[in-house]
Amino acid sequence: MAQRNTWQRERVREELSDVRGFVSAQSLHQALREANTGIGLATVYRALAGLAASGEADSLQSPEGEALYRACSSEGHHHHLICRSCGMTVEIEATDVEQWAQRTAALHGFRDAEHVVDIFGLCASCANAAAQE
Ligand SMILES: [Zn+2]
Ligand SMILES: [Zn+2]
Ligand SMILES: [Zn+2]
């Protein structure tokens, strides 16, 4: 089939932007299934990969090695602070990291260097809740 299933990609994008933090393809697929969209898991994977490739979604690896996705509110290069308990995500700029990465790459004779830096931790309210247990 030559025709691209753009409505499915649109639907995946919509669902993704309703999510507060990063989400796996499987849990997004679960939500789409509950909404009776009939979109298969393979299509969700493809749509997410496409959105990530075109810069419309952020992708990252969880500490457990699972691929996670999010519709990003910032454009361009940025980093994330992610709560590993509730998934709350803050988009951050990291000027120090940019300078360090450029310097380090140049020091080793690398050009066109890119980097991925995301910080996982417990957000303030999850840390509070944990302290009160
Ligand atoms: Zn982002
Ligand atoms: Zn949290
Ligand atoms: Zn950076």
Structure description:
The chain contains five helices and six strands. By secondary structure, it is an alpha+beta fold. The strands form two sheets. It has a three-stranded antiparallel β-sheet. Strands 5-4-6 form a three-stranded mixed β-sheet, with no helix packed on it. A hairpin with a 5-residue loop joins β2 and β3. α1 packs across α3 and α2 crosses α3. The mean pLDDT is 88.
Provide the succession of SSEs: HEHHEEEEHEH
The residue fraction in helices comes out at 40-55%
Q: Report the radius of gyration as a whole number of Å.
A: 17 Å
Major pleated sheet: 3 strands, antiparallel
User: Could you report the average pLDDT, rounded to the nearest whole number?
Assistant: 88
Q: List the bound ligands.
A: zinc ion
Q: Treating each run of at least 4 consecutive H or I residues as one helix, how many helices?
A: 5
What is the count of β-strands? 6
